[in-house]
Write a structure and sequence with these properties.
about 300 residues, alpha+beta, 3 domains, six-stranded mixed barrel, elongated
Length: about 300
């Protein structure tokens, strides 16, 4: 269990203006609950006093600050100089600063107090975490300490998923519309192919080809066109999806996200393409099957 400080501060710029509110977190120096991705400099150590680690969103808003700079921060009306010892990715989608709990608690004259209490459980199931949360709140209630809110890591993860759910839903709708348009285009292409090969179908009929053989030829051709389009789409998707991932990361955290290509998603899409190609080829294939030798001979 760890006690953290949490609050807002402002940066006082060299020209005297102040920034918008900056969130600060103050974990213990030996915290086990933070595993930051530090891209420049280092993380906080117990010996640090007025040292801060800033996130990339802070640098995006305060673009004159760099690693090693001394910045002026205003906390509860008091200004003090702080040294930027590290730059990290994430932490929040807002400008965020991390400081040592011991120093900030002394600075605010609130030693042995905390705003947040973090608890790490041995059982990582959502049910167990929720039960521990309820017991902690009950314990503080019995002591006469009112808690404003309690959140489990599972609820935090779900909140993060909900943020991206809208983007995913929008992309799925776009992909579905593109797939439908592609299916209609394939149906038109296959219909034209059948029309242009009417004489070929007649020759096949004349040498004994049955309905199944004609149907199979048209269907296989449609599926091959679909698979070829999937292969081309994958070649385009690899760089484009990386670009979109970087753009979303820059938008929310001012840093690129860790990119992972979904091979499962590509496989599912391949199956969907094959099914869509078969459905799109069904009507043209049925038209080819219905052609009789007499109709073929009269075709010009």
């Amino acid at each position: 269990m760890e006690g953290w400080f949490f609050g807002n501060m402002r940066r006082v710029r060299p020209d005297g203006t102040e920034s918008d509110n900056i969130i600060f977190f103050s974990p213990p120096a030996d915290t086990k609950l933070v595993n930051p991705t530090v891209i420049e400099g280092r993380w906080l150590i117990p010996e640090d006093d007025n040292a801060v680690v800033v996130n990339t969103m802070f640098l995006n808003n305060e673009d004159d600050v760099k690693l090693g700079d001394t910045i002026t921060l205003k906390i509860q009306g008091e200004e003090e100089e702080w040294h930027v010892v590290g730059i990290m990715v994430g932490g929040n989608i807002m400008s965020t600063i991390f400081t040592n709990y011991k120093y900030i608690s002394q600075k605010l004259h609130r030693v042995n107090e905390s705003e947040w209490i973090f608890t790490q459980t041995t059982d990582h199931s959502p049910e167990f975490r929720k039960a521990v949360q309820a017991r902690i709140e009950e314990h503080f209630g019995n002591l006469g300490v009112r808690t404003s809110m309690g959140v489990t890591v599972d609820e935090d993860i779900q909140s993060a998923k909900n943020i991206f759910a809208l983007l995913v839903a929008l992309m799925l709708v776009m992909a579905t519309l593109i797939a439908v348009v592609g299916g209609l285009g394939l149906m038109g292409t296959m219909s034209i192919n059948v029309l242009e090969r009417t004489r070929e179908v007649g020759v096949m009929r004349a040498i004994g080809a049955g309905n199944r053989a004609v149907l199979k030829i048209v269907m296989i051709e449609g599926v091959l066109i679909g698979v070829l389009s999937w292969f081309i789409a994958m070649l385009v998707a690899l760089p484009v999806s990386k670009l979109v991932s970087d753009m979303i990361g820059q938008l929310f955290m001012s840093a690129a996200l860790d990119y992972t290509f979904s091979y499962l998603g590509a496989t599912i899409w391949l199956v969907m393409v094959i099914v869509l190609a078969m459905v799109s080829s069904l009507l043209p294939a049925w038209s080819a099957v219905r052609l009789t030798v007499r109709e073929v001979l009269s075709y010009e």
